[in-house]
Amino acid sequence: MTDTYICTLSRDDYESFIKRNPHVALKLIDILSARLNDLYSLSEKIALSDVKHRLLYLLLMLTQKTGRRKHNWQTIEMKLTRQEMANMIGTTRETTSAIMSQLKKEGFIRKVRHLSIDADKAEEFLRSSEN
């Protein structure tokens, strides 16, 4: 977790600020475009992939957004339940738990303090299965 400050602005103040600071508007467009691209990629994976691929893809995305890397292991520094992960990839909690166990046995993930994924191995697996 990191410290966060929240600032509230009225709509008029926000629009005025954006007009005076176009570089902020461009940065917001960049952020929103990246989020839209991530959502598009995830929805494509959900529609076209099996649960193992969807789950590995989700875990990689989460590590890239919130994780820390140590060698080839990247941690997910947020707490997620199996149900929350299942909801994100369009499957059941039971299926997610079964696939998580399979991924652990296959050496893709481990849990010490936080859930970690072998990012290099997962990326290679996802790349090889696209062909």
UniProtKB/TrEMBL annotation:
Q: Name one Pfam family in it.
A: HTH_Crp_2
**Species per Swiss-Prot/TrEMBL record:** Salimicrobium flavidum
Q: Which SMART domains match?
A: HTH_CRP (SM00419)
Task: List GO molecular-function terms, semicolon-separated.
Answer: DNA binding; DNA-binding transcription factor activity
Quote the protein name from its UniProt record. Answer: CRP/FNR family transcriptional regulator, anaerobic regulatory protein
Residue ranges annotated for the HTH crp-type domain, each copy included = 49-123
- Alphabetical keyword list: Activator, DNA-binding, Transcription, Transcription regulation
One GO cellular-component annotation of the UniProt record comes to: cytosol
Taxon lineage = Bacteria, Bacillati, Bacillota, Bacilli, Bacillales
Statement: the UniProt record of this protein carries the keyword DNA-binding: yes
